[in-house]
Amino acid sequence: MSRFINVAAAQLGPIQRSDTRSEIIERLLAHLRQAHAMGCQLVVFPELALTTFFPRWYMEDPEEVDAFYEKEMPGPTTRVLFDTAAKLGIGFYLGYAELTVENGRAHRYNTSILVGQDGKIIGKYRKVHLPGHAEHEPWRAFQHLEKHYFEPGQSFDVWRAFGGVMGMALCNDRRWSETYRVMGLQGVEMIMLGYNTPVHNPPAPEHDDLSMFHNQLVMQAGAYQNGTWVVGVAKAGEEEGCEMIGGTCIIAPSGEIVAACSTKGDELAIARCDLDLCHSYKSTTFNFERHRRPEAYGLITSRRGAIAPADVEMSPA
Ligand code: ING
């Protein structure tokens, strides 16, 4: 008997700085209701789905900065998402900026949660790969200060939910093969990941025309090489003068895109996902137990940066 989940990839168009939390929550609720009407059990929202992508600015006023973070989840403005999920029997993945106090110290993370069809939190993930830079770099058309505003997460976990093994990632994580493989080694069958990706990458403008190609490339490869579904969801369009890619899509364990958005606004891409398709890859081509050779992979965890043999002239880092 196949295990199906009807999944909605819930793309958001831009969120401007002046948009209020209640206006944004209304957009998320509209997605939940539409997905429910279309028979979905799970909705996947983007990264930082409650605010504009604020790491594009260098801000020094702590109050100004902390207004972008959620101090509790659910909180006063987000509680309605959980109540609606429980009422409709539809779960969701949500990306947001998390501020938490542990042992009297404040910690800030780029976070996602997975909420079940009963409206209860199943799991939390904190972004491991924080791109960009930690200090203000005025030469850039816009900043990318995730290393300034967030601490990195330390692990990729999976959870048994929705009839399968579910995993979470966030944005830049999708560019690193280790993200998928660590969850693949835990039997993941569906990876949910939201992203906010500017078209323009200031350190490498020559890549800009390939931003959509790279977006699909990494997610399709991750899906196929680990025999897992991947649901990639954009916050897209022009946010505060910064154009962000769309490309929201649902990818099967074969690596094929089975559903995709075609706009850069609020849009659902929906697919009926058969989790049993994963087995076809996990038991053959990517039967890790039969084919992997960890004894040859030591450098992957023992070395951070690339080191070429002495006689190869490499361009300066
Ligand atoms: N955004 C971008 C991402 O990885 C980026 C940052 C853009 C990195 C282009 C490299 C190239 O999609 C986030 N939020 O990680």
UniProtKB/TrEMBL annotation:
Residues 5-277 form the CN hydrolase domain. It comes from the Bacteria. It holds the Pfam family CN_hydrolase. GO terms for molecular function: hydrolase activity, acting on carbon-nitrogen (but not peptide) bonds, in linear amides. InterPro entries: Aliph_Amidase/BUP, C-N_Hydrolase, C-N_Hydrolase_sf. Keywords: Hydrolase. This is N-carbamoyl-D-amino-acid hydrolase. It comes from Bordetella genomosp. 4. The lineage of its organism: Bacteria, Pseudomonadati, Pseudomonadota, Betaproteobacteria, Burkholderiales.
